[in-house]
Write a structure and sequence with these properties.
There is one protein chain. With 306 residues, the chain is an alpha+beta fold. The strands form six sheets. The protein has a five-stranded mixed β-sheet with strand order 2-3-8-4-5, with helices on one face. A five-stranded mixed β-sheet has the order 11-12-19-13-14, covered by helices on one side. Strands 18-10-20 form a three-stranded mixed β-sheet, with no helix packed on it.
């Protein structure tokens, strides 16, 4: 069945790119509401932005959604990944600014907050999007692909010049709390040269060595180093889960990303839904529910860093 939160949960922090303080409140929502954002600094009726792939205003640095009134919400991918990974289908996310707080740069604080609030069933059937045939998009040497599978499975491969990252790959099923255990605490990462360039353009104003993994060649500049040897590719998988949740429902299929980013995953969803023979709505029975992210999530699955 569909779910929502048992109670509201509040997060306070600053936007990664804007540097502005922001308060985010997740409210319980009724069945078939989906994930919606509310910019409370907009006039009544103009601040609602639905978290859907066709609301994305593509950006290379984050996932940003926007409505017809110009209300936008940026850097939603970590929160979306946490909602997907905790099996939450209906939420109203209220915030007082244009960007979701970055917190520690991972999804772990969101996961712990959601788990602490609790998740409750709504007594309404849950449907998922089942991938029926391969769909692939490319940009240069980057690609993203969806193929049929019984559960959501993510394969990812990256290759960076910085030796501390280099070539990394990972493959895993997202069933049975795997997201919280394996991916949720992996932080966003960037090169020191990219940080300097972004700040020169008025971006990454809220970025610090504590809310991102900053690397330079063979060095990790952030205190404490890496949380995982392959933290970079794990974070890319985290981002992919959040961006895939903009389908509006859980996906049953295998996602394969090679050097893929936010825009390419959005291209992939647009290509999937442009072909009505590539997918179908699937009513989730007990067997299907057991394969979805967030099912069988336990407190011990949540990383201690949250």
């Amino acid at each position: 069945m569909q779910t929502t939160l048992k109670s509201q949960v509040i997060f306070r922090g600053q936007g990664l790119h804007s540097g502005r303080p922001v308060t985010l409140i997740l409210h319980p929502a009724p069945a078939d509401h989906g994930i919606q954002f509310l910019r409370r600094d907009f006039a009544r009726g103009e601040g609602i932005v639905r978290a859907l792939f066709d609301r994305v205003n593509q950006s290379p640095l984050c996932t940003r959604i926007q409505n017809q009134h110009g209300a936008s919400v940026s850097t939603i991918e970590h929160l979306m990944a946490a909602l997907a990974g905790c099996g939450v289908h209906n939420v109203l996310a209220e915030l007082d600014g244009p960007e979701v707080p970055i917190l520690d740069g991972s999804a772990a604080p969101f996961v712990r907050g959601i788990f602490g609030a609790g998740v409750v069933g709504l007594g309404r059937e849950l449907r998922a999007i089942r991938v029926l045939k391969p769909v692939e998009v490319r940009r240069g040497d980057a690609s993203a692909r969806l193929t049929p599978a019984e559960a959501l499975h993510i394969d990812f491969e990256i290759d960076f010049a910085d030796a501390v990252i280099g070539h990394q790959s990972r493959s895993m099923s997202l069933a049975n709390g795997a997201f919280a255990r394996m991916l949720a605490d992996s932080r966003t990462f960037c090169r020191q040269a990219d940080v300097d360039a972004m700040r020169a353009q008025g971006l990454a104003l809220g970025g610090t060595y504590e809310n991102a993994v900053v690397v330079d060649g063979e060095q990790v500049l952030s205190p404490g180093g890496l949380r995982h040897r392959d933290e970079a590719v794990r974070h890319k998988m985290l981002d992919a889960l959040g961006d895939l949740y903009l389908a509006g429902l859980p996906i049953l299929g295998r996602y394969t990303g090679v050097r893929a980013g936010h825009a390419l995953t959005n291209d992939l969803l647009r290509a999937l839904f442009a072909d009505p023979t590539a997918w179908e709505l699937h009513s989730c029975d007990t067997r299907t529910l057991a394969q979805l992210p967030g099912t069988a999530l336990h407190a011990e699955d949540i990383p201690a860093v949250a």
